[in-house]
Amino acid sequence: MQQATKPAQAAISFKGADLRDDFEFLNNDRYDMERDSAGNFRINATRIAFEGWADAYVYYTRVEFAAMALRVSCHTPAKLAGWWNDLANGQDHIHEIRTGTRFGKALVAEKLCLIHSEISEAMEGHRKGLPDDKLPHRQMLEVELADAAIRIFDLAGAMGLDIGGAIAEKLNFNAQRPDHKPEARQAAGGKAY
Q1: How far apart, in whole angstroms, are the C-alpha atoms of residue 30 and residue 7?
Q2: pLDDT of 13-39, one tens digit each?
Q3: Model confidence, pTM
Q4: Domain coordinates of the chain in residue numbers?
């Protein structure tokens, strides 16, 4: 693997926090993030143990990087707020989920049901044309979809899922699907919605 020339580092931040700090917190490692000429993000994993390379680069598409940023932005605050441990006894729910215990599986089911509840609230807001009760300057549909996305990326963070990679692959797959083409959708028995 050739070492690339390091371009000037651009500050990547959101809500006043440097994204590098959040990656460091979440992954217990240090990363240098750069953008390549195509606009994709390149993260330099400075671990010698990383597949045996002393200086290896991992490339992420914009979609993958955006999903990683959302995963960190949604999961880190939830973890810090104690949503991923039992407040009474300190039990680590992330450990339960990642080791696949019966309790961990039930936690995943609970989180999926909470995601579904946000989608149902979005549908109700859309059906009735309601403003959101907590952010009244926004439509309930918009806020409840945001809540669903927050819960999805939080769960992905807890489970260590590469949701960005999955989204990127699924978008590429869907772009090639014959049943997603206009002519297939207009045919008898085609997807109407």
Answers
A1: 18
A2: 333 334 444 444 444 333 445 555 665
A3: 0.71
A4: 1-60, 62-175
